[in-house]
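Researcher: I'm preparing a figure for a lab meeting and need a structural model of a single chain. I don't have an experimental structure, so a prediction will have to do for now. The sequence is pasted below. Please return the structure as tokens so I can convert it later.
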Amino acid sequence: MSTVRAAFLMSLALVFAACQNTSEDAAVAVDAFRRDFLAGELSWDDVLARAADEGEVEFFHWGGSEALNAWMESSARPAIEAFDISLNLRRSDTGDVVNLILADDASGRGLGRGTVDLVWINGENFRTLRDRGLLFGSFASLLPNARYFFLDPDDPRSSVNLFDFGTPTDGAEMPWAAFQFIFRIDTARISPEEAPVSFVELEDWMREHPGRFTYVAPPHYIGTTFVQTLMYEMNPDGTSFEPFLTDPADADPVDLARLMEPAFAWLRRVEPFVLGGSGQDGRPGQPIYPATASALQSRFVSGEVDFDMEFGVYDVDRDIRSGLYPQTVQNIIFPETGMITDKSFLAIPSNAPNPAAALVAVNALSSPESHLSKLVEIGYAPGLDVPLLDAAMQERFADAAPDLRGVPASDLAAREVPNVNAGLVDIIDAVWLEYIAERSSRAFVDIVEESWRSAVE
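Model: Understood. Here is the structure written out token by token.
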């Protein structure tokens, strides 16, 4: 080997060793920071100083709303960059972000060496990271702005903040926005007094008005939530959601089938009376289940169907002001037994390359001012708990809230119920696809048991 080549290889080895040592040193430093922060041994000034040294934060969020994207630029960016942190906004489907975090972990990109600093997340995606041990830790209560959130396990008001689709958050994510499943009607076609308030009444209405109702097909989350809401009302043990919060891994599939069957019997029974149905009992026809929420909304706006549904109690006001809906559209309370409410959250992966900057970003986005601007500009109900604000700020939220268009806030709050356990979602979707979409003749219990095994094994 020539002297020159030997010298080159030696220098390359030294560079590689230096990079490896630098990477290992960074991992050690991140581990020490995380340990000390979660132990409460660092001041917030310590966090701010490290965040400024890190200098940036990679924030991955759902980018399917132009209103949200505009708010990110106009409000989130200046709020975070005020702390000498560059905000890199990455628009992506949340499932893809989770897969990226999983891929980083599988390739050995451990502490401090990941791709994602911060992710907007909830439900199954959060559960996936939690079960894999890929979250930063219990940071929520340690942030200065934690005082604006109910986080006490002994306070019933904290449950919506401490559970995410039935999965304990363990403080590993901070609430960011609240969403309630809501039905809408056009009062030019249906008077509020005649609108059904239960699924029993909805079935009667559908029989009287065949073809004027449909819902989004699962596995789209709007369709799945529709089915979940139906399951709560049709629970054979009474209109209660508690049995559906249990982790399916701890459930008996036969009993789960018993709990689910009345809802799916209702779905089968009304098929002839949905959009495209035959209008005659026992003859489904060609029922149409829109694939997306926007597809259902289009049919509602065009007058094909008389009900629309979505997560977001303020969306009607926004869509009326934008001209999408006529002034005659309004929200309704449906069903009276309970309207599913859940929050979305901000979480930090365990291998975030800039964990201090991520903490500062979450804290900035958890301020009353940030939640207020999000409410005003895009109609997202606040993820913080307004009763914890001072009187002046509470009044600002009350004054800024969009018109609820037909429903009092107190009625909505009185009917808040949690979402199902995240592990149940795949089972519901699989059962719907076989039992409803494919009209399988197999025994319902067999379909549920097979779906259950696929989900838990």
